Amino acid sequence: EVQLVESGGALVQPGGSLGLSCAASGFTFSIYTMAWRRQAPGKGLEWVSTIDSGGNTYYAESVKGRFTISRDNAKKSLYLQMNSLKPEDTAMYYCEVTAGGTPRRGQGTQVTVSS
User: Fold this and answer.
1) Closest CA to 32 of 59, 50, 7, 5
2) How is the chain classified by DSSP, letter by letter?
3) What angle do CA 40, 111, 76 make, to 5 degrees?
4) Amino acid 101: pLDDT
5) 94 Cβ neighbours under 8 A, 6+ residues apart
6) Is the Cβ–Cβ distance between 49 and 62 less than 8 Å?
7) How does pLDDT run across 23-52, given as a tens digit for each residue?
8) CA 95, CA 51: separation in Å to the nearest integer?
9) CA separation for the pair 108, 39 (Å, rounded)
10) Four-residue CA torsion sign, 93, 98, 49, 69
11) pLDDT at res. 93
12) 56: pLDDT confidence band, cut at 50, 70 and 90?
């Protein structure tokens, strides 16, 4: 069974930094493309970043230059380093894998950017 557990969310001031983690289990982590998505209050699910099995990374324009996605295949973990955070980054953040044709996400971790 695919399981994804996000952690690291917190309340942070504008301009601050935060690192998110996602622990994966139930599938061969190293061969799958992984992604981060987020959902702000009252809004739809938004793609943030993707890293493929070869380590190639892709970012939404809104986070490019501020966020860094990475993975540790030995630890079956996905990461998102977020710098220069803005109030508009406030959202529930989810890691995602598409396994068996179905996107799977964890329960999410809340990031709130506010002074």
Assistant:
1) 50
2) --EEEEE---EE-TT--EEEEEEEESS-GGGS-EEEEEE-TTS-EEEEEEE-TT--EEE-TTTTTTEEEEEETTTTEEEEEE-S--GGG-EEEEEEEEETTEEEE-S-EEEEE--
3) 105
4) 83
5) 4, 6, 36, 37, 38, 39, 45, 105, 106, 108
6) no
7) 999 999 999 999 999 999 999 999 999 999
8) 11
9) 10
10) positive
11) 98
12) very high
Residue where the block lists tokens 């996602």:
22
- C-alpha–C-alpha distance, residues 49 and 40, integer Å: 16
Please name every residue paired with 6 in a beta bridge, in sequence order, or none if there are none: 22
CA distances from 103 to 1, 13, 42, 67 (A): 13, 32, 21, 22
Give percent above pLDDT 90 in the chain.
95
- For the beta carbon of residue 108, count every other beta carbon within 10 angstroms: 18
What pLDDT does 99 receive? Answer: 79
